[in-house]
UniProtKB/TrEMBL annotation:
Residues 197-288 form the GerMN domain. PROSITE patterns: PROKAR_LIPOPROTEIN. Residues 24-51 are annotated as: Disordered. It comes from the Bacteria. The keyword Nuclease does not apply. This is GerMN domain-containing protein. Keywords: Signal. It holds the Pfam family LpqB_N. InterPro entries: GerMN (IPR019606), LpqB_C (IPR018910), LpqB_N (IPR059026).
Length: 557
């Protein structure tokens, strides 16, 4: 039922501009949205009287390129039964190279072969999946009052790669971690425009994808409880309405509901605050009926201070662009091959990678193993020790082995935990020798890590020698690899979109060095740190690459 209602919400977005004229020119409007989308608005014409089957098929594809988005004119190319059953909001296929076969008579109907190359697919929530496959279909046309109409269209929208580039943009929508203490981002693509807030809210109304349902939660009522679209008033307040009473919610439930909605809608240009209403009126939270987008910073996915850990002349330091600071209670750590630290926990790996040491309060905890990867300390202070045989977590001196069943058969070459601690990322080598970049959920019971969920491969077709994976944000990974730009820092969104050297908006080329490992300082804007083979650290920020004043560095993390 919820799936059907979410499809209806998507259809509402698609049909939101149904009152626009049935034909007209392409026009230009002022681009004030700041998302770099095309400003061209296009209203395709409906089917012409006496159009041939081939013209009807081509017109149907053209009608799905309307902007602002509307499925009304596309539905005019369908038979009445097909128009009633067609579900344009179910999915979106991005295509190139459309081809059409000859019309083949079949009694009173016609068959036309339609083909295209799919380059990406989006589900109804906007989740992106790269594709590269040729699709061939036979579409049947029938006469309706003497005019040809399509009787069996595929569900979903079909848009060209040019249309996708012009009007779709990536956004993060937000769920909650299992404890409800912070938000967890989920990447989607949505069409920009007046209906963007409605589309973003529709993306979270169905809840997290099944692959992440065990590691995240949602306080947003089910999709069938949403009322209409999300308008924005002249004061930049987005009105979100539900058809159920909300005033009976406890204080903490109200805050979690508001945090999830505010974090999601703040990505829509023009939204400065949110007003949440139920069937019993406006919901007040903390005595306020309007929730400012800056009011829920405490739910931020990352708790980092922006510094990274580094071992300089065998002494532990936390580095940023200007300063080196000692970690209280820890000075010399000796020779190490890997390090990770927050304000209270320090983890190191011995030079031969056979010993893993965690320093917390009390005596250090040592773990023996084979070929330990660089350590990871997550936002909860849990330390991750990964070697050739097992994944272990260390907390308060307790060492536990984590079930990694879904990862059996692959050899991990680097490992990282997302800023929200809800996902893992890893580079791996398969038994056949293939390289993979993987992500998956971290599954907990009673807030204790129990196992790693099944991984999804992030497409990186142009990369090899992948290593030193790290999280830039909750939806973007960075790693060292060989690619089209040589041996570089590369980054990619976890849905496989936007694979590029460096980070969006930053310098692409790494200085001529031999990179050893990579770290990210998560602050208001990510900073990339690269350690080279000579023990020097370079920082990439909006100022470009610069040398950090630290010599004889053996590890960063």
């Amino acid at each position: 039922m919820r799936r059907a209602v979410l499809g209806a919400l998507a259809a509402l977005v698609l049909a939101a501009c149904a009152s626009i004229p049935a034909s007209g020119p392409v026009t230009e409007v002022e681009d004030d949205r700041g998302l770099g989308e095309s400003t061209a608005r296009y209203t395709p014409a409906g089917p012409a009287p006496g159009a041939t089957p081939d013209q009807i098929v081509r017109g149907f594809l053209e009608a799905m390129l309307a902007y602002p988005v509307s499925s009304q004119i596309a539905a005019e190319y369908l038979t009445p039964d097909a128009a009633r059953d067609w579900r344009p909001g179910e999915s979106t296929t991005v295509y190139t190279d459309a081809r059409f076969g000859q019309s083949a008579p079949e009694g009173s109907s016609r068959q036309i072969r339609v083909g295209w190359r799919a380059t990406a697919r989006l589900d109804e929530q906007g989740h992106y999946r790269p594709a590269d496959d040729r699709v061939e279909q036979q579409w049947r046309l029938e006469r309706v009052e003497g005019q040809w109409r399509i009787a069996d269209p595929p569900d979903g929208m079909l848009v060209t790669a040019e249309y996708f580039e012009d009007y779709f943009r990536p956004f993060d929508v937000y769920f909650l971690d299992q404890t409800g203490s912070h938000v967890v981002p989920d990447p989607v693509f949505r069409v920009v425009g007046d209906q963007l807030p409605t589309a973003l809210l529709a993306s979270i109304a169905e809840g997290p994808e099944s692959a992440r349902a065990a590691s995240t939660r949602s306080e947003v009522p089910a999709a069938e409880r949403l009322r209409g679209s999300v308008p924005i008033d002249t004061q930049r307040v987005a009105d979100v309405e539900f058809t159920i009473p909300l005033r009976e919610l406890a204080t903490d439930e109200r805050e979690r509901l508001a945090a999830q909605i505010v974090w999601t809608l703040q990505g829509a240009p023009g939204v400065g605050a949110v007003r949440i209403s139920g069937s019993d009126g406006v919901l007040a939270i903390g005595g306020e009926v309007v929730q400012d987008t800056a009011a829920y910073a405490s739910f931020a996915p990352s708790s980092s201070d922006g510094r990274i850990a580094a071992v300089v002349d065998e002494r532990l330091r936390r580095l940023d662009a200007q300063t080196q600071r000692a970690v209280p209670g820890v000075s010399e750590v000796g020779e190490v091959a890997g390090v990770a630290s927050d304000q209270t926990v320090v983890a190191t790996v011995a030079p031969d990678r056979s010993t893993f040491t965690v320093r917390e309060e009390g005596a250090p905890t040592e773990v023996s193993g084979t070929a330990f990867l660089d350590p990871v300390v997550d936002r909860d202070g849990t330390t991750w020790a990964v070697d050739a045989s097992a994944v272990r977590v260390v907390a308060d001196g307790d060492v536990r082995t984590v079930d990694t069943g879904p990862l059996a058969g692959v050899s991990l070459t680097s490992f990282a935990i997302s800023p929200d601690a809800a996902r893992y990322g890893a580079t791996a080598v398969t038994p056949e020798g293939g390289e993979q970049l993987l992500i998956g959920p971290v599954l907990r019971e009673d807030d204790v890590v129990e196992r790693l969920g099944a991984p999804t491969q992030v497409p990186t077709p142009s990369l090899s020698a992948m290593r030193s994976v790290t999280w830039v944000t909750g939806t973007r990974l960075a790693l060292l690899a060989e690619g089209s730009a040589g041996e570089q820092v590369y980054s990619v969104r976890i849905d496989g979109s936007d694979l590029r050297p460096s980070l969006p908006g930053l310098t692409t080329l790494l200085p001529r060095i031999e990179p050893v490992s990579l770290a990210v300082g998560l602050a208001e804007e990510p900073r990339l740190y690269v350690l080279d083979v000579e023990g020097r650290v370079r920082l990439l920020s909006t100022r470009g690459w610069e040398r950090i004043d630290a010599e004889a560095v053996s590890a960063i993390g």
